[in-house]
Amino acid sequence: MRLIHFPLDPGSRKIRLLLAEKGVECAYAEERPWERREEFLALNPAGEVPVLVDGEVVVSDAQAIAEYLEETHPSPPLMGGDPKARAEVRRLTAWFDRKFCREVTAHLVEEKIGKRLSGRGYPDSGAVRAGHANIHTHLDYIAWLIDRRSWLAGEQFSLADIAAAAQLSAVDYVGDVPWDAHDGARDWYARIKSRPSFRPLLADHIPGAPPPKHYADLDF
């Protein structure tokens, strides 16, 4: 099994965490999707990471890969134990994969690092301001959920927690998560950050764009 990914891409991070939580052995190949290499486009014409290659099976799109891994490696289960639980896991996973990414990650990580790496100019200050404003609502929502549940989608750690942590870890890499203003979200993230599956993410280092000192610190 091989995962084609880019280290700071939240979808790629989501699958790396999922693989580690399930204890699935996998080789990793870094891809810079903006380079549009023909070999990569042959695997995924959309030109997006992550892509999972499992023998002759090629799966693209982070959520499709997550569902594939849940079916092929069902232990431990990370999608919920009944239809109601699975619906809530899927709802919150989509919240972070789509809404958080659109309102926060795209405005901060993409503007600050993505543009520079791909040679698309300088950050849009308006977009960065929007990302800084939007993140507070999402952190408040995480705190609201955790005040009522053990984990985001319920009493069990799930793909919803993984999806949220994947997005937040990317934003934290650029130092733009206001943890001090959101104790509830910070406490939840500290639990995620201390899991063994998270250690490889904390070791990520993008050349020319190092993370802040607190990024790999389990105590922030």
Q: What is the rounded Rg?
A: 17 Å
Order of helices and strands: EHEHEEHHHHHH
Number of helices: 8
CATH topology of the largest domain: Glutathione S-transferase Yfyf (Class Pi), Chain A, domain 2
Number of strands: 4
Description:
- With 220 residues, this protein is an alpha+beta fold.
- It has two domains: 2-72, Glutaredoxin; 83-198, Up-down Bundle (Glutathione S-transferase Yfyf (Class Pi), Chain A, domain 2), CATH 1.20.1050.10.
- 54% of the residues lie in helices and 7% in strands.
- The chain contains eight helices and four strands.
- Strands 2-1-3-4 form a four-stranded mixed β-sheet, covered by helices on one side.
- Helix 1 links the parallel strand 1 and strand 2 (27-30).
- Helix 4 runs parallel beside helix 6 (159-173).
- The radius of gyration is 17 Å and the shape is globular.
- The termini are far apart.
- The model has no long low-confidence stretch (mean pLDDT 97).
List the helices and strands and how they pair.
Elements: E1 2-5, H1 10-22, E2 27-30, H2 38-43, E3 51-54, E4 57-60, H3 62-72, H4 83-118, H5 125-146, H6 159-173, H7 183-193, H8 199-202
Parallel strand pairs: 1-2
Antiparallel strand pairs: 1-3, 3-4
Keywords, please?
220 residues; alpha+beta; Glutaredoxin; Glutathione S-transferase Yfyf (Class Pi), Chain A, domain 2; 2 domains; four-stranded mixed β-sheet; 8 helices; 7% strand; globular
